[in-house]
Amino acid sequence: MPEWTTPTDPAPPPAPKPLASWYAQGLSDGLGDRLLMFDNSSAPSLELLRFRPDLADLPGFEAALREQVRRLDQFRHPSFARVRAVQRLEPDDDLALISNCTPGKRLSEVLHRARGPAFAAAVIQQLAPALALFQQHDSGIVHGVLSPDRIIVSPDGQFTIVEHVVGPAIDRLGLENARLLSLGIALPATTGDAAPRLDVANDWYQLGLVAMSALLGRQVTAADLPQVERLLDGMSQSAGRDGTVLSPWIRQLLDRALQ
């Protein structure tokens, strides 16, 4: 006769893993304070830029920021971090920009050890085409606040631009030079009473300053520009720290961007 075995109940499914979250303080600058948010789920980590109240509460800023986020909702490029939303945070109703957190360090943090002509060339080769495509996404699209603080360098040497929805919102406010400089926004010299504009030309000027910073290993500002010719001449004639000489095409691009 056949032997009968008593069926056993299937093993119960494993209990779901408890959700754990943790936070880390990020960069603080003239725009505001950043908070990095992580958890043990498969969802992307997030970065919150909590704007300073004296900027967030200016009439028109929040509306212009939300409009820029809407305009760029469908923009995707590997050299730009994805922006998720604009929210008001409890309990103080602070205005915050929420973006995907990009692994790596800000370019400003690595300049002291990663610099020279080859590094500057990598910055330009990766970011110049990406910036051009970004500007072509829609009429009037610009970054406006590009700097070494707003570029992330990944462990494998890729560059990612962040906070690219903020500039046009600031531009809409019509702030004076001194106020823009206090926010950490680089501006070319203006003549007469012309109000500064965060436009396409200013994006290339700011990328030129970023490339110069990568070349020299420190943040370059408008105050350095009177010495730019001398600095570039020196880099064109002798090898930098990375053992390479500044190539003519980089020299030409920097000269044009920083005019």
Blueprint (SSEs and pairs):
Elements: E1 21-28, E2 32-39, E3 46-51, H1 53-56, H2 61-71, E4 83-89, E5 94-100, E6 105-106, H3 107-110, H4 117-136, E7 151-153, E8 159-161, H5 166-171, H6 177-182, H7 200-216, H8 228-237, H9 248-257
Antiparallel strand pairs: 1-2, 2-3, 3-5, 4-5, 6-7, 7-8
Shape: globular
Radius of gyration: 23 Å
Side by side, the strands of the main sheet go 1-2-3-5-4
| Main beta-sheet strand count, sense and barrel state | 5 strands, antiparallel
Q: What's the end-to-end separation, in Å?
A: 97 Å
Secondary structure tally: strands: 8
Tell me what portion of residues adopts beta-strand conformation. 15-25%
List low-pLDDT spans. none
List SSEs in N-to-C order. Answer: EEEHHEEEHHEEHHHHH
Question: What is the helix fraction of residues, given as a range?
Answer: 25-40%
Please state the average pLDDT score: 86
User: Helical stretch count?
Assistant: 9
Structural class, by secondary structure, is alpha+beta
Could you characterize the architecture of this molecule?
With 259 residues, the chain is an alpha+beta fold. The chain has nine helices and eight strands. It has helices at 53-56, 61-71, 107-110, 117-136, 166-171, 177-182, 200-216, 228-237, 248-257, and strands spanning 21-28, 32-39, 46-51, 83-89, 94-100, 105-106, 151-153, 159-161. It has a five-stranded antiparallel sheet. A three-stranded antiparallel sheet has the order 6-7-8. β1 and β2 (32-39) form a beta hairpin. The radius of gyration is 23 Å and the shape is globular. The termini are far apart. The model has no long low-confidence stretch (mean pLDDT 86).
